[in-house]
Amino acid sequence: MFLSPATSNLQMKIEEVVRIISQFNGAIIALSAGVDSSLVAALARQALGNRVVAVTAVSESLAPGEMEIAKKTATHIGIKHVIVTTDEVHDASYKANPSNRCYYCKDTLYRELRREADKAGFEAILDGTQLDDFGDIRPGLLAAREAGVMSPLAEAGFSKKDVRETARLFGLAVWDKPAMPCLSSRISHGEEITVHKLSQVGEAESMVKRLSGARDIRVRHHGAVAAIEVSQEELSLFHQDGLMNQVEKELKLIGFTRVTLGPRKYPNRQETAALGNDLLLPIINNSSH
């Protein structure tokens, strides 16, 4: 079969990832519900067969629905799936929400993954980091390096576009899934992270998605203000008659008193840099009186 240069190039990258993973005597995959780690899990299963286990961490910062997606992905791939509980939300350094908050989260995660690797007698821990990730400020990458985590996609030269195209070719349902970072990224740095705030954000995002039909949204937590951010492509969904009134009504039930709506916009696509109140540019502003 004739392959175009682009397809041929992608095939070479796929083969390189499989070659890299094949070197290890078993591997643990840090499986979130995202496309990057899902692709690594699929390629690791191809490379190592049963000598690979996908591990998903659950904590209060995991967005609603993500665990079910991870389970379905693991089942589709045919890879053993283990769920571990992490307690980063109760770590004082994490709760303080500094600019390097993600470091403390990933440090906790990789300690758990190392325990799972040792338990299984596996050599490697693999994550889904790809080349585009290096363009952002990601404190979690430092934790990965310190823990000896390997990133086969990045090593083989995968971009985000490559990842999505390969995941589509492999029939992974998450191939076009919007990124869904942890709920703590919705709280501005310096503002304390609490289980209550995370619960509010998780509930709010579930409500907004259900009411609007949008897939790619965030609800930033600014105290009593719920700042909804929507991708440009889905912003028109919120122009439905009466929708914002219904959204405001439901979000008030979980403790918010004001709701704003605007397009998603953050510098360097950095999820961990939550916007401050002075950067909110609401299109619709429903306030209680």
Characteristic key phrases:
alpha/beta; Rossmann fold; GMP Synthetase, Chain A, domain 3; four-stranded parallel beta sheet; disordered C terminus
Number of domains: 2
Listing every helix as H and every strand as E from the N terminus to the C terminus, the arrangement reads HEHEHEHHEHHHHEEHEE
Number of strands: 8
Largest sheet geometry: 4 strands, parallel
CATH fold description of the largest domain: Rossmann fold
Topology record:
Elements: H1 5-22, E1 27-30, H2 35-48, E2 52-58, H3 66-77, E3 80-85, H4 92-95, H5 101-120, E4 124-126, H6 140-146, H7 152-155, H8 160-169, H9 195-212, E5 217-222, E6 225-230, H10 243-252, E7 258-263, E8 284-287
Parallel strand pairs: 1-2, 1-4, 2-3, 6-7
Antiparallel strand pairs: 5-6, 7-8
Helix pairs in contact: 1-2, 2-3, 2-8, 5-6, 9-10
Question: Care to describe what's here?
Answer:
The chain has two domains: 5-169, HUPs (Rossmann fold); 183-287, 2-Layer Sandwich (GMP Synthetase, Chain A, domain 3). The protein has 289 residues and is an alpha/beta fold. The chain is globular, with a radius of gyration of 20 Å. 40% of the residues lie in helices and 15% in strands.
In short:
The chain is an alpha/beta fold.
